[in-house]
Write a structure and sequence with these properties.
The protein is of the alpha/beta class. The protein has one domain: Vaccinia Virus protein VP39 (Rossmann fold, 3-Layer(aba) Sandwich), CATH 3.40.50. It has 8 helices and 7 strands, in the order ααβαβαββαβααβαβ. Helix 2 packs across helix 3, helix 2 packs antiparallel against helix 8 and helix 6 runs parallel beside helix 8. The longest helix is centred in the N-terminal third of the chain and has 20 residues. The structure holds S-adenosylmethionine (SAM). The site of S-adenosylmethionine has 17 residues, from helix 3.
Length: 223
């Protein structure tokens, strides 16, 4: 198992990962833009290398960007690009109630056996009209197959994947309202190619009616 501190020390973004980051950014921008207000703030919880929050800051220059991680390596790296980066636990962020217009996480929630303390905390710091976007690995995908084949075990300790139903049930049972669920990477080709060959390509189908077969799922929720 690799600690997050060690992981971020030697991390570099693969070509294909950049593609996923761009796809996530389109979703984040879309929902950031539909939130009403002028001086809007956004936080990435579990920012890691900070690829998405940095890209969001570039594409939305008037967005007040924050980031949080409990890895000191990650925080030191991201602080250079996002000065408002804090070292804290995702389920005890220390921010005031109703601070952020957009709260999002990517690649974080799947590492928790019990998600409730996390999503309760994110609800607490979200403004009443705010939006939360959560990216997690989809259950039935080539990416999951790769993980099982390659690692034999999860690289970062406990990790799970979700079906659309699991996600819907989780958020509804914790009193969130669901705005949308989006699948990223139909047929999960880029997710697979990403680790195996370090390549990515434009998928033949950008939008898909598939119930499964994506690399990631993204659930968009509000209070
Ligand atoms: C898979 S990485 C995701 C990084 C980034 N969001 C991305 O999409 O590339 C998960 C990150 O969550 C952080 N993390 C894990 N548990 C955490 C916790 N309890 N509180 C804050 N951050 C946490 C790790 O340090 C790591 O940087």
């Amino acid at each position: 198992m690799i600690s997050w501190n060690d992981y971020w020390k030697t991390y570099s973004t693969s070509k294909a990962e950049k593609w996923l980051i761009l796809e996530r950014n389109k979703i984040l921008q879309k929902y950031f833009n539909i939130i009403e207000g002028n001086e809007k703030s956004v936080i990435e919880i579990g920012c890691g290398f900070g690829s998405n929050i940095s890209l969001l800051k570039e594409t939305l220059p008037n967005c007040n960007c924050f980031a949080l991680d409990n890895s000191i390596e990650a925080v030191n790296l991201v602080k250079q690009r996002i000065p408002n980066t804090v070292l804290a636990d995702a389920s005890d962020t220390k921010f005031d109630n109703e601070t952020f217009d957009l709260v999002y996480s990517s690649g974080l929630m799947e590492h928790f056996r019990d998600e409730k303390p996390l999503i309760d905390e994110w609800k607490r710091i979200l403004k009443p009209n705010g939006i939360m976007v959560t990216f997690i690995p989809a259950r039935f995908s080539l990416w999951q197959l790769y993980q099982i084949m390659h690692f034999g075990n999860w690289q970062h300790g406990y990790e799970k994947s979700y079906t659309q139903k699991m996600l819907i049930d989780l958020f509804l049972s914790n009193n969130w309202k669901i705005i949308d669920i989006i699948g990223i990477d139909p047929f999960s080709m880029n997710g697979f190619a990403m680790k195996l060959f370090n390549i990515s390509f434009q998928p033949i189908w950008k939008k898909s009616f598939l119930k499964s077969g994506y690399t990631e799922l993204c659930i968009i929720t509000k209070k």
